[in-house]
Amino acid sequence: SKLTSLGQLEMTWRSRVHFHPLLVRVLHKSRLRYYGKPEKKLDMPYQAYFEVADGSGMMSMVLWNSLCPEWYNSMKVGTVLLLEQYAIKTSYPFKTQPTPGDSQMKRFATIEISLNVRDPPTKISIIPEETVKPEWGLPEVKYRFITRSELDGLPNNHSCDVIGLVTFVGRAERARKREHGEDFWLYRWAHAIDGTSDQPFILELFATSQPDVFEHIHPMTYLVCTQMRVVRDLTENPSSTIYLTTSNESQIFITGWHKGQPYTKDTKVKNFIQWTKTQSEADQMKKTVIGGYYPFPRPPNNFLKY
Questions:
Q1: What does residue 124 show for φ and ψ, rounded to 5 degrees?
Q2: Highest taxon of the source (predicted)?
Q3: Which candidate, 35, 36, 38, 39, places its Cα nearest to that of 49?
């Protein structure tokens, strides 16, 4: 069929009602958002953002309502989609922006693709990776992996991806989203090492839309976390309290989930796998810890400083 590109859409969307099909690759995926309110009678008040790209650039795509339970889990980072009968809307200005792995990629920020059950009823097809043709010009998924030795030199709020061997995982804890509110964020702390430093990555992992992964992080698993943000205490001793926290677009993977993921081709991931082959499992097992209370950042040693 006659296809259009994201670049053409941005130039012609105001003058059209019906759009030609789009062929795009998913580069980023947000957590699933529930926006239900007691007074609004919506059957499935869900929404999820994706960043999709073709040869012309990258644009946001929004999956709405009952399409979320049907499609959210199938649309992985790297998945190629054929979209027909979609709507185009002006962008929502306050949404979070992931940091693209390819800094040269053009971003179309004024409009977004809207996928709905009706008005118009979107038709979504997933194209198997083995049938994707190079002449379609779809970009590859690119990452920004860092090693633990590189972390100390990175600025606050820098976006990165990490891989490590889990040595500690804390219990799940809850924090109120808003003071006096009823909603909570669920999170847990983890440590992961990659052999490039004596220090581990300290990871604050909020529950993403992957409960099957979040609940099964345990010592000795290979953990990959994407779109993490650097948090450093810029006040006292900057190096002592540097850690990474998840963002709205973070994805988490553990042993058993890595097969077929685009990051398996990344050089730093391959280097990490080589390093793990030189390690004795029994030695590492002795150093692992699970559960318990983990106060972080740690309080000062004496009450006067506190």
A1: -115, 130
A2: Eukaryota
A3: 35
DSSP percent split of the chain into helix, strand, coil, nearest 5: 15, 35, 50
Residue 294 CA to residue 75 CA, distance in Å, equals: 35
H helices of the chain, in order, are: 6-12, 67-71, 148-151, 211-214, 267-277, 281-286
- The two domains 6-136 and 148-305 share their CATH topology (first three levels equal): yes
Of 121, 148, 138, the C-alpha closest to 81 is: 138
Start-to-end CA distance of the chain, whole Å, equals 67
CA-to-CA separations, 301 to 107, 297, 305, in angstroms, rounded: 48, 12, 8
How many residues appear in the chain? 306
- List the chain domain ranges: 6-136, 148-305
Task: State yes or no: cis peptide before 299, omega within 30 of 0.
Answer: no
Q: How far apart are the C-alpha atoms of 176 and 21, rounded to whole Å?
A: 43
CATH number, domain 6-136: 2.40.50.140
Q: Is the pTM of this model over 0.70?
A: yes
pLDDT, tens only, 15-62: 888 899 999 999 999 999 998 888 888 889 999 999 999 999 999 999
pLDDT tens-place string over residues 192-205: 999 999 999 999 99
